[in-house]
Amino acid sequence: MKVSMSLQNFVELDRRTKKAMGGNVSFREALTARLNIINPSHQKITEFIKHHEVRFTPGIKELVAILQSRGTEVYLVSGGFHSIIEPAAKELNIPAKNIFANKLKFYYKGDFAGFDNNQPTSDSGGKGLVVKQLKEKFGYKKLVFVGDGATDMEACPPADAFIGFGGNIVRSSVKEKAAWFVMSFQELTSELDKTS
């Protein structure tokens, strides 16, 4: 698959992504701007999924497997896109019903038509709304949210705890504000091993 983007567009996309993940602009505003730069067609998304192998952060498969073996439901709550996240979820044995992410919209011929702004994850505070809904629907007494961005921290509360994650990127605002910050999923697995 060939994706063409001018250097100027790439630099702008990178700038907007960093700004959004740092919590300096509303997520919906950043998402709209980034998608307008990328302008993803249905064909581009399909080719991307087909030609890009899912890459996992070391330790995530083991962590998810341990949680699931203990009867813990694992959810993927993301500002990314359902169609791109679903293959990874499948490999992690996480059912599609446990994915809360944005959905791209396309016109009949496959041209980009925007995104579904009714998805809670399409705006700032949306991850917290998902957590609130999960707690209400299933009666969870303890719900822990793990993430690396400002929009992840917004989920606590209503999440009962937030664990900052720096295994892919360290965002200083997340590291400073998280009560517990880890650099690898192995750290979480080790803590779970202590409680078994």
From TrEMBL:
The keyword Repeat does not apply. Pathway: Amino-acid biosynthesis; L-serine biosynthesis; L-serine from 3-phospho-D-glycerate: step 3/3. The keyword Hydrolase applies. Its EC number is 3.1.3.3. GO terms for molecular function: L-phosphoserine phosphatase activity; magnesium ion binding. One of its GO terms (cellular component) is cytoplasm. NCBIfam families: HAD-SF-IB (TIGR01488). This is Phosphoserine phosphatase. It comes from Potamilus streckersoni.
